[in-house]
## 1
Amino acid sequence: MTVQNTTLSWDQLLELAQNNTPARRVSRPGQSPSTAPIPSSLYKLSAQTPPPVLLYRDTNSWCPFCERVWFALEEKGIPFATEFIDLSNKPKWYTDLVPTAQVPAAVIEGELVYESKDILLALEARFSNSPLLPDDPQENAIPRQLVEDAEMNGFMGIGYKFMRGTSANDNELATLQASFEAKLDELEQALAKYPGSYFLSTFSLVDIMYAPHLDRLAISLPVYRDYHIKGNPQFPNLNAWFAALNERPAFDRVKTDAATFNLLLRRKWGMEAIANPLPLDPVVSQTIQYRAEAAERLSDNREAAIGDILKNSGVQALAVNGDTSAVKDAIEFHLKLLAEYLLNGDKTLLPWGRVGGKENIDPFSSAVGAITLAYVRNRICAPREMSAGAATAFRAAADKVLASIY
Ligand SMILES: N[C@@H](CCC(=O)N[C@@H](CS)C(=O)NCC(=O)O)C(=O)O
């Protein structure tokens, strides 16, 4: 990819970004979320044919149970439509429709199914392509039991209890940790039963049942309990499982990123970090497809981003006599620089303390830029706005450009 060291227009940045990533989203003006990923198999249907599945999931893409279903739909290549439900203000038609009033729910070929496990099993029964359980009923018994176990074996409850550790003293925490480790040991043994890295000899619904929860625990425990599953020699099979999982394109589309989930725990549940976040994965941060996806999102969404930064980051305090035009210009300049850095990497001319050129240091612009970058770095939410890989690349780039300002 070639980018000149001149400031490109937003349209040029957008085009360059789109040429370097296959990721595309539909725009949903005035709705939440304002964009949504396009299911990878939707191309199989003509525009007039309604997809066989309608998935109801949460607007913010935080729900691990919705992730299970989305993951399975992507793995099985089933075209689907999505209806987003705002959990903080559930529409009456939804609470009337779904007895639990929870997400996920799905309408599968006209029939309503709710509870993520039941939706997964219903998809399995109706769509035999890309099976995620063995076909043979005899072989099927053990996998089905493992799917039940994933729901009922208490792993999730203990995992999240240990992670939240609310009002637990040191002794209680040690007990919770021991119970959690006993559960992880059980999973280690379960993973050893079949050849390969998955719970069965091929990827299956059992992996999908665990993936969103284990992933969230592995992401958050280092920060909130200073406890590591990934890289822990006590859990070689789980580590091989994570590695295999992260190779799957469908998981890449649906998973969250560490910063999104950890910030959610802090903001929504007031959890206090006791350790620093793990470093952003340098390989992911450098992957051009992710960088281009992040630049594409930023370029395409710049108007809304500028408005949001102006309104919510506190930067308005720097406006002189209430005139925000100079603030706006400086926000835009730094967002453009970020998009350019995402696309052009180290060939981008970053300020390195020389905003506006060596002789022309502009402390006002630098201050606005610093606020802008610090704000957007933690503002984005994956996979609501972009894939987890793109979010990682975005945050790493924001850190780099921010560091270059002062
Ligand atoms: N057992 C359910 C759990 C679903 C669930 O807990 N969904 C949460 C979001 S992560 C929800 O809808 N919360 C809103 C509410 O309960 O009102 C399943 O597997 O589908």
Note: The CA atoms of residues 232 and 337 lie 38 Å apart.
## 2
Amino acid sequence: MRYHNITKDDMSNGDGLRVVLWVAGCNHCCRECQNPVTWDPYGGLPFDEAARQEIFEQLDKNYISGITFSGGDPLHPANSLGVRKLCEEIRQRYPRKTIWLYTGDVWEDVRNHPVMRYVDVLVDGEFRVEEGDVKLLWKGSKNQRVIDVQETLDSENPAVPVLHCPDYFEGVAD
Ligand code: SF4
């Protein structure tokens, strides 16, 4: 697994203040993607022990709510195993912190991925510029969904995602 950046005290990629890992590698090629530099799975830097420790130092802080995996696509074949192992370790070391993951894949295609046992919130789907709206909550375009993964997996029909939040902050739409 390779990565481009680790951002800290991030307020734009999930609830609370978060550490965000921006991985390298994405096959979705969404039009007007904001991070095309992250598409190349050979770009960025190797995710090494120093990067791992940098993330744990952030998660050690009481005020950090959790980690968000973004990119790039954390479920790209170059990242999928590394992300799963890191999620497993974070879940063990920090059981009270939340794990969010942004992917261009849709829930229906990834709901059986082994990483889902660790993910609290999944933001799914490709960015569609024609459905884009900067006021949307935690997502870039209307087709994407902010999914409560554990609620969904525990529900009667896990094929139908249970949403974590509405499309907009209360009262913000139009
Ligand atoms: S899935 Fe995300 S990173 Fe990949 S092309 Fe689409 S917007 Fe860009």
Note: The longest strand covers residues 2-10.
